[in-house]
Amino acid sequence: MKKIAIIGGTGEQGTGLALRWAIAGHEIYIGSREESKACEVADDLKLICIDTACSLLEIERSDIEAIKEKVPEAKIFGFDNLEAANRADIVVISVPYSHLIPTMSSIKESLTEEKIVVSVVVPLSNAVGGKATTIIHPWEGSAAEVIKSIVPENVHVISAFQNVSAERLSDLSNPVECDILVCGGQKDKRKEIMKLVQDIPGLRAIDAGLLHNSRIIEPLTALLIGMNIRYKVKEGMGIRFTHLPE
Ligand SMILES: NC(=O)c1ccc[n+]([C@@H]2O[C@H](COP(=O)([O-])OP(=O)(O)OC[C@H]3O[C@@H](n4cnc5c(N)ncnc54)[C@H](OP(=O)(O)O)[C@@H]3O)[C@@H](O)[C@H]2O)c1
Fold it and tell me: Fewest C-beta in 10 Å: which of 27, 103, 226, 231?
């Protein structure tokens, strides 16, 4: 069981990840600029987890005794971003690129050596008034490397989950069905995050090496968004790699 903070966890991608990891048994700290908003979202997500468990176990939603007995309580809590990051082992950054630097500055003091920071951020051009089908090029190379340039030197930064849609993550009635490229950090830290990927039904983690590969992985999301529009796939396409050794 991991303690996972999701900074910007009130948004689409953050809530999808929170639901999936809470169902897998992890303890989730939803982070927001406003603690009250984080608490509201955390309560809503807990209810979604109960509903999902009830329909799986065929329990009536009104049968409070059966729920108490058979449905494990999802561990989802709301905090302001700094407090969420303080409490966690793993800190997931899930804010639009335009707000990345002020958000990182607001939590930087909590990021100590033993924590792993995970970037799901994509520097889409719509963050600065352009199109979501193109990206902007951060000076550091990628959004994940912007994060790496801000955190203390010995904090591991891992890049993952950029190419999976929030809508697929939030659809708890179906497995997500795509591959997640994971890069950055030391190999053992990367493996820890790959395990978190595999905790989500349908996702397969692929070790994509060093953090600078995020420069290739992040722009794939802009490509996917364009293809979603062209093929009218509202819920979002995913990527699968073939012929990977077991
Ligand atoms: N949505 C997807 O399908 C998807 C897929 C892959 C990757 N991503 C990436 O994941 C990240 C989050 O995406 P999202 O769709 O979840 O974004 P979002 O819903 O637009 O925003 C996420 C959260 O960021 C916080 N935020 C908004 N404005 C802010 C500001 N001015 N300063 C600081 N924080 C602010 C908000 O939290 P509070 O108001 O509670 O502080 C908001 O709930 C993005 O970088 C995106 O590119 C998204």
Answer: 231
